[in-house]
Amino acid sequence: MALLGEYEHTLDEKGRLTLPSRLRTYFDGGIVVTKGVDRCLFAFPPEEWAAFKANIKANADLSSKGRQLSRMFFSMAFEASLDRQGRVLIPPKLAEYAGLQRDVTLAGVDDRLEIWDTQEWDRYLTGADDSFADIVEEFAGRESGV
What we know:
The chain is of the alpha+beta class.
């Protein structure tokens, strides 16, 4: 299972986000939305949330940074089910963190969706496109042991 693609949507006046119909089956068992990195939100199907949670717990030892990481992801997590229209409520604190207004972009990132304010997503992509080749080179060097 892989969540792929980019989708533009809007939040309604109640702060609900309608997921694209082609992605809804991934979230039949529910959805977990939490704070992401780079000022976006992460949205996981339950089984992927379980794997993400296990990874955080395994790597967040008793260090202050590990405790902070756990708190940032888990304290802001919100479990829900999609309604009959395929909508999920984005809690106000999460929407505020990600700067979500009305126009949002959903980006499939393999095991999760990222929910971005569309203007912020466009800014992010512009910067990422500028460094894309360098990033590929860096990861290629890691794979070859260089």
